[in-house]
Amino acid sequence: MNEADFAKQSVCEVWAEHWDAVMLFAECGTQWRRDMGYVVGLDYTAVKTLLEIRQIPSEQWAEYLEKIQIMEAAALDVIWERNHGK
């Protein structure tokens, strides 16, 4: 997914306590790993690099990663449905 894909989606509410994680996830739009042509998940090395660039304290990384993994799983479901149907 990239920024254009997010722009095409319907609007959804994001709670303030999740905003930073959602923005970090959006920045990962070009960091999807593929295997045999299929999207399989985010490149966590790139996620870690973004955490460092954004100067997020390392004590908070686990919390961010948990939130990002929830969004990643939901995104993978959508990607699978778009490519293969329900």
Automatic annotation (TrEMBL):
It holds the Pfam family DUF1799. It comes from the Bacteria. This is DUF1799 domain-containing protein.
